[in-house]
Write a structure and sequence with these properties.
The protein has 895 residues and is of the alpha/beta class. The chain is built from 36 helices and 33 strands. The chain is elongated and about 110 Å long. Bound molecules: adenosine-5'-diphosphate (ADP) and magnesium ion (MG) (2 copies). Its EC number is 2.7.9.1.
Length: 895
């Protein structure tokens, strides 16, 4: 047809850019021979032109006239005719569905004359007036911008006057009266008469739909969903069919499978004698499809056939909008339907078993984010609950525990075997112990990247943040919300998936998927008992994960610092440890020793402390290497800034000052204060840390290298197969690495000779500074492997402080569209990603066999994994519970 118009018989489902989702699918259904009312689509191209110039393209008027003529000839009626009027709907439809952007206008073509024609032609006067009042209502609201409540109130008044509760109780006369009132509302609300000319109605509706692309609400929605601004919307003009033509007519929506559980079968709602939005708006109670079948077996049979046809054609779950006019079925819309995470996994496997899709395609139908959702326990929605407030869901899961208001209480109560939920205004690093001890964390302040949120997500602990309705009084050990006070020890329940906070106990159902991941398929199926939905879900997850494992190129390693973490990681499918942090091994009672190393005034004192640390650290490594036998285990030398191992300067200064005033000053504290003061840095994250520390504090790295070497030697002698690797953090220059390397090689040689074993322990660099990425070609001369530390690399590339960024300006940046995701959650492909690509290319140019991985938070982020795959990395490393997600995403990236 013309430039801007496609007849439904001309398009197809692959033309969504041009026809929008609705138009493309209407064309597809038309081509399949399904009963779609005839019509045509005005392309997004016309919308783009309108948005640029502010007026409808001149050719469009002519094209609409021609298309309309053709439609009129095809159905044998004229738009707005006195006798047998053709009526049309005008429906928006962009490439991506945008709820709440623009509504549809039905019954275009009705006016004071054609309403009579419609009444005669249908022999149903009530129907004709009902259709006319709907037109004025929808047109007034969506095209003329009049407050919809004015119409709704008038409708309510008419119902009250007639003494009926539903609009179907209104008579033709009532509705005719209502049309008069609606016209008055239009006149008073817009300063003009309701347009009587059908073509004017049509043109105004088309322009209004184009305009609606740029409403504030539509822009905001697009920014949030990352839908491009310049797509525009299509407009569909479609012959009206009538579900409001009495008892043998109706309208409904349905799904070809259950979108919430994935169970095979048909699901939907039907409403007799109704039109358009009536079904979803909840104005009357709907019937089930089973009721519909009983009511009209023929139409139902046709619908079932159409559903089957669509499913085999789209090879996926479809949702459908349909209407029955005097017993005849009409298909008004279809699309591939949204579904829950559980349904996604089950449906993907069902479709494979029905030979509709391949296993590779099935992987494309599920996502790591969905698997993540399935791994958290859930509250039983059927149990009774008292909602206190709803806030930001920061880390999923369902946690029930006694409210506690400080970390020491959390730790003490947990040690007694109690489940506790830590409630704080906000958390800080001192709360770490309490957070670990708690089943859930709830804060009244902070956003999705606040300390509480980030740490809880990392630990897999359920967390809700920013619950501003809570007034948390830690000193009084209570919080109040909506006039209710919850004291220490009272039970609360938090849902980290929905952000809901409940009072008291709520029954929890554990995640069967985690049981499968930890204990295997048989155990999980056995535990499901006769719950076939659960058994089927774990079987589906198993088959998809197994396929991802065969499909992927990327290996998946875990970040694990203890033998227990290592064991868990391995059971969840980790193929190695990509990051074993050693600094945690210096905390607790060992902290005094490291303090002594740092503050030593002579070599002997320092060496004594180092000697005391050696056996402790060696034992840690032996444990981990035992768990990780045969698999690569990358151990990172000490990284964090020194002050993390020393007492807090301010607290110590106060202590010393108070002791001085009391005349009881402690010379140790005074010396310590001086030392801590000397080491204070304005910007510790850019200060003395990582490799710098190793080069400045004599003996520290040597101790760690020796501990690794001796642990490997011991494992070898015990008949093990250890694969330790040593990773040097925060390298900026190849010279740093050469210095560390020379020293390390000497130690490895010495231990090897003394113990009489061959030690093969590769030494590599973390690439986490822009300079390291840019000089990767040189660094690769001294590095046997690279591992990207994308957290620090994001921080140093953007110049954002990881620890301050949230409160300072991230929310503002999200609101104004500078950032859509936090670059700390999902890799910034353009900036940080470019450094990754450069480092890979330059590193491998120097050393083609260079192994390259990533061990930052991004290693477990679904969106980032696809990028790392494309960038040619060998593995991603993430926290143990993210390993299955990474396995799935790595598989998806390679099919
Ligand atoms: P949305 O995108 O909000 O779902 P639609 O364009 O699908 O809006 O229109 C909403 C409803 O209006 C449809 O589900 C259908 O019931 C009804 N409708 C639209 N066009 C027609 C038509 N030509 N005949 C009968 N009903 C229609
Ligand atoms: Mg619709
Ligand atoms: Mg780092």
């Amino acid at each position: 047809m013309g430039n801007y118009i496609y007849d439904f018989s001309e398009g197809n489902k692959d033309l969504k850019d041009l026809l929008g989702g609705k138009g493309a699918n209407l064309a597809e259904m038309t081509n399949l021979g399904l009963p779609v009312p005839p019509g045509f689509t005005i392309t997004t191209q016309a919308c783009r032109s309108y948005l640029k110039t502010g007026e409808l393209p001149p050719e469009l008027r002519v094209e609409v006239t021609m298309a309309l003529r053709r439609l009129e000839d095809a159905v044998g009626r004229r738009l707005g005719d006195f006798h047998e009027p053709l009526l049309v709907s005008v429906r928006s439809g962009a490439k991506f569905s945008m709820p709440g952007m623009m509504e549809t206008v039905l019954n275009i073509g009705l006016n004071d004359a054609s309403v009579q024609g419609l009444a005669e032609f249908s022999s149903d006067e009530r129907f004709a007036w009902d259709s006319y009042r709907r037109l004025i209502q929808m047109f007034g609201k969506t095209v003329l911008g009049i407050d919809g409540d004015l119409f709704a109130d008038a409708l309510d008044k008419a119902k009250a006057a007639r003494g009926v509760s539903s609009d179907v109780g209104l008579t033709a006369t009532d509705l005719e009266g209502l049309v008069g009132e609606f016209k008055t509302i239009v006149r008073e609300g817009s300063g003009r008469e309701f347009p009587q000319h059908p073509r004017e109605q049509l043109d105004l509706a088309i322009a209004a739909i184009f305009e609606s692309w740029n409403t504030d609400r539509a822009r905001l929605y697009r920014r949030r969903e990352r839908i491009p601004e310049d797509l525009g919307t299509a407009v569909n003009i479609m012959t009206m069919v009538f579900g409001n033509l009495g008892e043998t007519s109706g309208t409904g929506v349905c799904f070809t499978r259950d979108p919430s559980t994935g169970v095979v079968g048909v699901y939907g709602d039907y409403l007799v004698n109704a039109q358009g939005e009536d079904v979803v708006s909840g104005i009357r109670n709907t019937l089930s499809l089973q009721d519909f079948e009983a009511l009209d077996p023929t139409a139902y049979g046709e619908l079932r056939q159409a559903m089957r046809r669509l499913e085999t054609h789209y090879r996926d779950l479809c949702d459908i909008e349909f209407t029955v006019e005097r017993g005849k079925l009409w298909m008004l819309q279809t699309r591939v339907g949204k579904r829950t995470a559980a349904a996604a996994f089950r449906i993907a496997i069902q479709l494979v078993d029905e030979h509709l899709i391949t296993m590779d395609e099935a992987l494309g139908r599920v996502s790591g984010a969905q698997l993540d959702k399935l791994m958290f326990p859930q509250f039983d929605a059927r149990s009774e609950r008292v909602l206190l407030t709803t806030a930001m869901a920061a880390s999923p899961g369902a946690a029930v525990g006694m409210a506690v208001f400080d970390s020491p209480t959390a730790v003490a109560w947990a040690a007694e075997g109690k489940d506790v939920v830590l409630v704080r205004r906000e958390t800080n690093p001192d709360d770490l112990g309490g957070m670990i001890a708690s089943v859930g964390v709830l804060t009244s302040r902070g956003g999705k990247t606040s300390h509480a949120a980030v740490v809880a997500r990392g630990m897999g602990t359920t967390c809700i943040v920013g619950a501003e309705a809570l007034d948390v009084d830690a000193a009084a050990r209570q919080f109040t919300v909506g006039g209710r006070t919850v004291r220490e020890g009272e039970l609360i329940a938090i849902d980290g998936g929905s952000g809901e906070v409940f009072l008291g106990d709520v029954a929890v159902v554990p995640s069967p998927v985690v049981r499968y991941l930890e204990d295997g398929l048989d155990a999980a199926v056995a535990a499901a008992g006769d719950d076939e939905d659960v058994a089927d879900l774990v079987r589906s997850v198993h088959r998809l994960l197994a396929h991802a494992d065969t499909a992927r190129r990327l290996h998946v390693h875990a970040n694990a610092d203890t033998a227990a973490d290592a064991r868990r990681a391995r059971s969840l499918g980790a193929q190695g440890i990509g990051l074993c942090r050693t600094e945690h091994m210096f905390l607790g009672e060992r902290r005094v020793l490291i303090e002594r190393v740092i503050l030593a005034t002579d070599d002997a004192e320092r060496q004594a402390a180092l000697d005391a640390l050696l056996p402790l650290q060696r034992a840690d490594f032996v444990d981990i290497l035992t768990e990780m036998d045969t698999l690569p285990t990358t151990i990172r030398l000490i990284d964090p800034p020194l002050h993390e191992f020393l007492p807090d300067y301010t607290e110590l200064a106060v202590k010393v000052a108070l002791a001085g005033v009391a005349g009881e000053s402690d010379p140790h504290d005074v010396a310590l204060l001086a030392a801590v003061g000397r080491m204070r840095e304005a910007n510790p994250m850019l200060g003395l840390r990582g490799v710098r520390l190793g080069l400045v504090i004599p003996g520290l790295f040597a101790l760690q290298v020796r501990a690794v070497a001796e642990a490997v030697a011991q494992r070898l002698k015990d008949g093990g197969d250890p694969h330790a690797e040593i990773m040097v953090p925060l390298v900026a220059s190849v010279m740093e690495l050469h210095l560390v390397r020379d020293q390390a090689e000497a130690i490895l040689a010495e231990v090897s000779e003394r113990e009489g074993v061959t030690l093969t322990i590769p030494i590599g660099a973390m690439i986490e500074l822009p300079r390291a990425a840019l000089t990767a070609g040189r660094i690769a001369e001294a590095a046997e492997f690279f591992s990207f530390g994308t957290n620090d690399m994001t921080q140093t590339t953007w110049g954002f402080s990881r620890d301050d960024v949230e409160g300072a300006f991230f929310s503002e940046y999200a609101a104004n569209g500078v950032l859509s995701d936090s670059p700390f959650d999902t890799i910034d492909v353009r900036g940080v990603g470019e450094l990754v690509r450069i480092a890979v290319e330059r590193g491998r140019a120097t050393r083609p066999e260079l192994t390259i991985g990533v061990c930052g938070e991004h290693g477990g982020d679904p969106d980032s994994i696809a990028f790392f795959h494309a960038a040619g990395l060998d593995y991603v490393s993430c926290s143990p519970y993210r390993v299955p997600v990474a396995r799935l995403e790595a598989g998806r990236a390679n099919v």
